[in-house]
Design goal:
It is a single chain. By secondary structure, this protein is α/β, with parallel strands linked by helices. About 40% of the residues lie in helices and about 15% in strands. The strands form three sheets. A seven-stranded mixed β-sheet has the order 2-10-9-8-5-3-4, with helices on both faces. It has a four-stranded mixed β-sheet with strand order 1-12-13-11, with helices on one face. A two-stranded antiparallel sheet has the order 6-7. Strand 3 (about 80-85), helix 4 and strand 4 form a beta-alpha-beta unit. Helix 10 packs parallel to helix 12 and helix 11 crosses helix 12. The two termini are about 35 Å apart. It binds pyridoxal-5'-phosphate.
Length: about 375
């Protein structure tokens, strides 16, 4: 295949720094090579910083963010468990689907698209159902560009004795996230968003309480591949001999180790502030050009912005011409926002004022061109 360069301003993947691509192309070594096992330990340590957790079971799953979602629920949920799934977009809906397939008794708590999960509505739902085992929500809804208040949601869930599962696919390393302080029992993410790494990996962290629930299960975890009891024998460091579970994507782990090193070098605080500043700049520029943001300012997710498609502008023509003529990828709307909004990602390497200028200028120019 011919070498293609794109500027990636969609919902992920985002552009990947050269040093991460160089790490990816290092010679492959065995997945049980002692040097590789040491690297996995290093990745786990770096990931703990990124998630802001001391959870020993913090590692990188071999598979995309969806494997993180599947692994969280298939381990934690036993058939018949009552799970409150907070839904304010596509990915909350996917969580419900995953839980239903496992045989959970799902209580859906729906919020309007473009608004966050309501802590008050969660409080009411948990008051109405006294036997809920798990509360699940999406911290950063990539389909709507909305950030929910993970701390408030978890506080309420914990006060009702529930375990908390948080989808942090588009929040990890892009917005404030504190797994331990906020009492999140399972948090999972994806490599291709604010970490600015290649796609196909899912960082995940399990609290002691979550691991305890898995250990107390009456039934076997339905998925062999995602069963953390089996995965632990491969990922957990310490005195024990590490056992083969599956052939890890060794080179991708080289890449994420470098991506995580870059996060630590920059520091989380600086990285969160950089994502926020880039997004503020984007809003200002687009609004100055007469474009309208979909989400109210207080609920916006800095790494991903939804912009309303102006009347009379052909969505497909704008995105198609940007891609074909300018090598720029812009995200289309998803679910209820399909054809109504664009999704602009400023994630990882692309979360800078310069890159915000670049995509805002290109979009405004293309809108004018497609209006004829
Ligand atoms: N959850 C959220 C919030 C996402 O944005 C995505 C992907 O965009 C996923 C889950 C699924 O991740 P993946 O596509 O890497 O499987």
């Amino acid at each position: 295949m011919e070498r293609i360069h794109r500027d990636l301003f969609g919902p992920g993947p985002t552009n990947v720094p050269d040093s991460v691509l160089i790490a990816l192309s290092m010679p492959t070594i065995g997945h049980l090579d002692p040097d590789f096992l040491n690297l996995m330990d290093e990745v786990g340590e770096r990931l703990k910083y990124c998630f802001q957790t001391e959870n020993p079971l913090t590692f990188v799953l071999s598979g995309p963010g969806s494997v993180g979602m599947e692994t969280s629920f298939v381990n934690l949920v036993e058939p018949g468990d009552k799970v409150v799934v907070c839904i304010n977009g596509v990915f909350g809906g996917r969580m419900r689907d995953v839980c239903e397939r496992i045989g959970a008794d799902v209580v859906s708590l729906e919020s309007d698209w473009g608004t966050p999960v309501s802590p008050a509505a969660l409080e009411q739902t948990l008051a109405d159902h006294d036997d809920v085992a798990i509360v699940a929500f999406v911290h950063a809804e990539t389909s709507t560009g909305v950030l929910s208040d993970a701390k408030a949601i978890a506080e309420i869930a914990k006060s009702h004795g529930c375990l908390v599962v948080a989808d942090c696919v588009t929040s990890l390393a892009g917005v404030e996230l504190r797994v331990d302080d906020w009492m999140l029992d399972v948090a999972y993410s994806g490599s291709q968003k604010c970490l600015s790494c290649v796609p196909g990996l899912s960082p995940i962290s399990f609290s002691h309480q979550a691991v305890e629930k898995v250990r107390r299960r009456k039934s076997k975890v339905q998925s062999w591949f995602c069963d953390i009891n089996l995965l632990m024998s491969y990922y957990e460091s310490g005195e024990k001999t590490r056992a083969y579970h599956h052939t890890a994507p060794v080179n991708s782990l080289f890449a994420i180790d470098e991506a995580l090193r870059l996060v630590a070098e920059e520091s989380l605080d600086t990285r969160w502030a950089r994502h926020s500043a880039a997004a503020q700049h984007l809003y200002t520029k687009l609004e100055a050009a007469g474009l309208e943001m979909v989400v109210d300012p207080q609920f916006r997710l800095p790494p991903l912005t939804l912009v309303r498609i102006p009347d009379g502008v052909d969505d497909a023509a704008v995105r198609g011409t940007l891609l074909n003529d300018r090598d720029i990828e812009l995200g289309g709307g998803l679910g209820k926002f399909a054809g109504k909004a664009w999704r602009i990602g400023l994630m990882g390497q692309n979360a800078t004022i310069e890159r915000a200028d670049f995509i805002a200028d290109a979009l405004v120019e293309m809108i004018n061109q497609c209006r004829g």
